[in-house]
Amino acid sequence: MQKNDRLFVQCVIIVFFIFNFFSLQARSPRRIRDPYIPSITCRWVDSCQTYTLTNEHLDWYPFFKLFNKDFFQDHLLPEGTVAFRYEKTKSVDTQVLKEQIDVLCAEIKQKKRKYTYFTVLQAKDFNRRKGNGLLIVKFKEYPFVVKMFIERPETFVSPYHKGFEPIFFFYLGGGMNRHLAGFTRIKNLELIKERVAQSSFWQQRVDFPRKWYWLPCDVPWIEIVGKNMMGAGTTSITQIPGTYCIVADVIEAKHTMSILDPAEDKGTILNLCNYLNLWIDPHLNNFMIEKYTGKLVLLDTEHFASNVGFKEPLEFHSYLSWYLHLAGKFMQNTFGQNKRVRRNHERPLPCMVLT
Ligand SMILES: Nc1ncnc2c1ncn2[C@@H]1O[C@H](COP(=O)(O)OP(=O)(O)O)[C@@H](O)[C@H]1O
Ligand SMILES: [Mg+2]
């Protein structure tokens, strides 16, 4: 997020938390807690130590729908060589990339600040000491970026210890977090590419980096058991990788987008997002104007409708209306749920469910 945008979101969250604080104070300690509040319990698949989060805002969808093992495996970084995006005659054996990613994982475990084969592009959602979160790095020798997602059972059930933005998405997206949202990035990329190809206007102007999943060696898996997630008394179970990454083409920018860009350019981005049914996040730093082609390239292909739990198609014609809608939805989700909704009987799924 840009500095001003983040400030705005942070102010909204602080005000709501103050309200929430006072409402919690008013609750009688003798009042019995609803036994049908949804919960998730996580553990490493080879361990008995469990960690539980019980919270009325947890939805079944982000935890039990977004990770599809077959889809994930079909989209792994292939064996053999991959050609570079800009110098098409050059390529690299993916085995070299995989080995360097394994070294990165080892260096993250050692809590290193600098990495042998990578430079850091973004670490705002990464906790170096705990070694969890989302770290975005670029290979020093090859034109690819790596988005490394790391969670452990105890961090997975702690949405309140990761900063303001994760809390915001937790309430908006029914427990959504960066790790789960990463599982939407390639499926959604495919959907967006298809939709862009259907428009003679957008197909001339918009492009995307290629993306592949990768599981570094010895990845531990997390088991998630959900209670009351599909309605009172239900149990759901799944397993997800505790560490995985996305390898993507590096995009070289002629121009990175910001709030200072002309209204016309920001309007183009909002038009694209509306055309794509808000499946993508309109945030300006998710876009670049590419150096060699002048095309608008979308870097961040997270399924935004899932991130913020949009239940019906929406359109926005200014960034202000987009922010206000998100702030209003946050307030509604956080403070406006009655007991029936909290028990999660008939919660509608986001408007564009990824299958
Ligand atoms: N393929 C890419 N090429 C170049 N830079 C990238 C690429 N992907 C991400 N980045 C850089 O990392 C930043 C964050 O990436 P993004 O996928 O939007 O992550 P987040 O989910 O944290 O918003 C981008 O704003 C951009 O600066
Ligand atoms: Mg982004």
Quickly describe the structure.
The protein has helices spanning 3-25, 60-64, 69-74, 94-109, 153-156, 164-172, 178-182, 185-197, 200-205, 263-275, 304-307, 319-335, 339-342; strands at residues 39-44, 51-54, 81-83, 91-93, 118-127, 132-139, 144-150, 206-207, 211-214, 221-227, 235-241, 243-249, 253-256, 287-290, 296-298.
Q: What does this protein look like?
A:
The protein has 355 residues and is an alpha+beta fold. It has a domain of 218 residues. Helix 1 runs parallel beside helix 12. The longest helix has 23 residues. The radius of gyration is 21 Å and the shape is globular. Magnesium ion binds next to loops.
